[in-house]
UniProtKB/TrEMBL annotation:
This is HTH cro/C1-type domain-containing protein. Residues 20-75 form the HTH cro/C1-type domain. InterPro entries: Cro/C1-type_HTH (IPR001387), Lambda_DNA-bd_dom_sf (IPR010982). GO terms for molecular function: DNA binding. Signal peptide: none annotated. It comes from the Bacteria.
Length: 112
């Protein structure tokens, strides 16, 4: 059932931190490396993980997702599963028409 007032939904920092740790481990990154890749101060991820930041800003979450190669909303528990960074790099090299052709092909394979 959808929330009547989504702006009143509580932020689940514990779940956010667990997802963050899982994605960092998948990428083999420590907090300082992720902070740097995301363009944040060196202690940003550590501060989030240790509870010094109770609710990260939207821009921070988006920077972390981008640095980890995640879809928007993935750290918040929304959206599709993460795409591996290698796959994301390959997709980024393709023009829009080729990406669309690939998508059609993948959809047809899923139906088999």
């Amino acid at each position: 059932m959808p929330l009547e007032h989504p702006e009143q939904a509580e932020f689940d920092m514990d779940a956010f931190c667990k997802r963050l740790a899982r994605y960092m481990a998948q990428e083999g990154m420590n907090p300082a490396q992720l902070s740097k890749r995301a363009g944040l101060n060196a202690r940003a991820v550590t501060d989030i993980q240790q509870g010094r930041i109770k609710s990260p800003r939207v821009q921070t979450v988006m920077a972390l997702e981008k640095a980890l190669g995640l879809s928007p909303g993935a750290l918040l528990g929304f959206g599709p599963a993460a795409v591996s960074s290698e796959l994301q790099e390959l997709l980024n090299e393709l023009d829009e028409a080729t990406q669309q052709q690939l998508l059609v092909t993948l959809r047809s394979l899923r139906k088999m």
